[in-house]
């Protein structure tokens, strides 16, 4: 079942080492199928260079394995919670990585400020860093509660997940998302790149401030929404 | 039309990912043809690995598309303004990138000081960082006003664009130029390299000063002008 | 003799340049054979690209060469001491490198704090940095005393080498280990990666604290011990 | 003439881009032939990927071109002075680069302290940074005076060029040397690597001190001199 999607998810997973976002097996991509309301995800702990499309695991939104010989990624319950909350808003692909610069920000417990147009082209404002889970949340259901926390914090901060398609989890790593697995990987690459630039930028000028709001708006809306004019595709 | 130039501009664009200056489609190269007073530029948002020479777009200096199926780079109006002001001074190729270290300086709002001969071999003095556009300039005609700002600031600072073939745009990225697209790419590579060294240099010695003027002069004039003696070509 | 193991040790050595952990010949891998109580190690100063499996050297735990035309790695006496103390605890592969970030921490004389789950997935707590040898220890038997120091310091600190499979040697470099040469290389890669992230993390937030203990526990025990649930293998 | 040596020098030059030590044409290697007292050097400003062995230029120690169609490297007079002073001490290969980290130290005006054994394995003590030339020295004979300065400063500091086979030139770049062009390249790679580690090391611990002298001695003499025991070659 979902053979087409398995192939797509496999290929999106393979992009993670290609873009230098993962070491060993430290990452996973999933994609949601709106018709069946199932999603396909990487198996846990399988090396990228031996993994095959048929190793992908099919899951439902109750966290049950629907098809697959292997265990799904141990982060699967986080994907479940994000899809449950946001799939109907358009979040149909999710990526988790420990990409090097972004994870350094996560370890430092800080969100990535929007210092320039590279960031504003993809993210409307800061990429937030959510708090650590409490001892109780960790012991109760760590991965599921990570999903609850992300969704809850976006709500609390009034952030639209479509406009801010990534989050840092304190002391942990990065989740990013998009309209499919491929776009989620794309947003992961951008997160790493802006994490790198923001890191250097603060070293060059320790008193740097975020980019002016009007510049952030200009770049974000040049690429998104009804009046976008970047690229070739017609937006409507 | 301009088939030869389209091929040349295509190849110069392909150098951007080769030299690690761009992520995804974040960059563009154009080249000006003095005979027809047209220029050829990369199409907007097209991936480097599927782009073909015939995808290049031909533009005139009024910003009209003269030939091409695709939309030109969204930064085209910036290229137009630079050619209008400087093509007759010898600026016949322009590159825009968000290359990682140089953009970190742009985000920090600082020009790149001339700390050594690597810089002085290519740039006479600091690579300046021009201010952000105002809200009005952004809303009115963002890309065109970026071109006006660059040209105006070089005039105000008394900088010769031939002797300082790159600029940082605050909170944004880098524009570089040269006698053709290829030389503009070359200057983009150098900008990134000196941005990298200047960043580290200030960490190693926070009180570092620019290189002595006589050393800057020596290296710049060893490679440029009537008395140049670097390389194989005769200068006259 | 031990032809199979020589091939394995050769291949583990070849992984060091593949993962970017060594420059020139600055690294070595060995693996211990519990049956014969011999170990196989890289020859000293031989380039990775001309080295062959049959160049590997067979040593006993008294530091005698049992087989091989070439001199063993000059760090062999350190390997001997570690196997003598820890082989029966499960340490059957050892790696030494001067990998760039981890060695920077060693030169700075600091252990690598556990700032996040990437670290906690592999190491239970800080990767310690042991002191320099004294003048007497250096002059007496430098490499052997390095082994004594590592083993002695782990005992003094109450650290289990299985739970903390790497150490920094002050002003020197890294030793890591595992259940075979391959796992030791794996732990070397992780050490370098967490060294890199911890370095950046402290720059981003100079007052950063280690990750909460409950998060460290969660990630460590998600991958290790009777209740591990990461990956595909059954643990018992 | 010297066909064998031209090939060797060509190949040593080709190692510079291979090891990531040069951008474009920013580097050169020469090697001295003790029999004829001539040396072979890279031509000026020729791209590494079009350069051929027969392009190498043969020079004498008075700075005259003895053979070759192309201009020699513009740094040739520096090579001349170094060979004149040190060829009889064993310096028979010279490399000049602007390698990125080492040049950052040169721009910062600081020598590279010996923070660990990676450094001590190759360099006995700090890699010094010599002062800028004066206006008069620059205008009189820049490249020749660079050579005089290096030789004079080593004498003044009581440093043996064989034991410290590299130098930083303030605001400029790196010269390294060895018993042939290949060893000089090797020392250039090490200089870049220790520059990188020292840079990070000072960030991790701003109060770091050089490695203890007895550890520096141990590592230096483990690889050099009559009692060396690293590697396979017999020393006598």
From TrEMBL, chains A, B, C, D:
Residues 7-199 form the Class II aldolase/adducin N-terminal domain. Pathway: Carbohydrate degradation; L-arabinose degradation via L-ribulose; D-xylulose 5-phosphate from L-arabinose (bacterial route): step 3/3. Belongs to the aldolase class II family. AraD/FucA subfamily. This is L-ribulose-5-phosphate 4-epimerase. It comes from the Bacteria. NCBIfam families: PRK08193.1, PRK12348.1, PRK13145.1. GO terms for biological process: arabinose catabolic process. Its cofactor is Zn(2+). Keywords: Arabinose catabolism, Carbohydrate metabolism, Isomerase, Metal-binding, Zinc. Involved in the degradation of L-arabinose. Catalyzes the interconversion of L-ribulose 5-phosphate (LRu5P) and D-xylulose 5-phosphate (D-Xu5P) via a retroaldol/aldol mechanism (carbon-carbon bond cleavage analogous to a class II aldolase reaction). Its EC number is 5.1.3.4.
């Amino acid at each position: 079942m979902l053979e087409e999607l398995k192939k797509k998810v496999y290929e999106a997973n393979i992009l993670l080492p290609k873009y230098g976002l993962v070491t060993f097996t430290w990452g996973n991509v999933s994609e949601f199928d709106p018709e069946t309301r199932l999603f396909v995800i990487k198996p846990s702990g399988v090396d990228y260079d031996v993994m095959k499309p048929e190793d992908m695991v099919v899951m439902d939104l109750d966290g049950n394995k629907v098809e697959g010989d292997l265990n799904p990624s141990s982060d699967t319950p986080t994907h479940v919670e994000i899809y449950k909350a946001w799939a109907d808003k358009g979040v149909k692909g999710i990526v988790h990585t420990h990409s090097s610069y972004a994870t350094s920000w996560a370890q430092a417990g800080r969100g990535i400020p929007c210092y320039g147009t590279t960031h504003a082209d993809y993210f409307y404002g800061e990429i937030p860093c959510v708090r650590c889970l409490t001892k109780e949340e960790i012991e109760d259901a760590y991965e599921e509660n990570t999903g609850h926390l992300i969704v809850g914090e976006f709500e609390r901060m009034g952030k639209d997940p479509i406009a801010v398609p990534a989050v840092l989890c304190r002391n942990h790593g990065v989740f990013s998302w998009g309209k499919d697995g491929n776009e989620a990987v794309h947003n992961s690459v951008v997160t790493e790149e802006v994490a790198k630039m923001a890191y250097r930028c603060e070293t060059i000028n320790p008193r740097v401030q975020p980019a002016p709001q009007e510049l952030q708006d200009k770049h974000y809306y040049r690429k998104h929404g009804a009046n976008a004019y970047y690229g070739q595709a017609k937006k409507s």
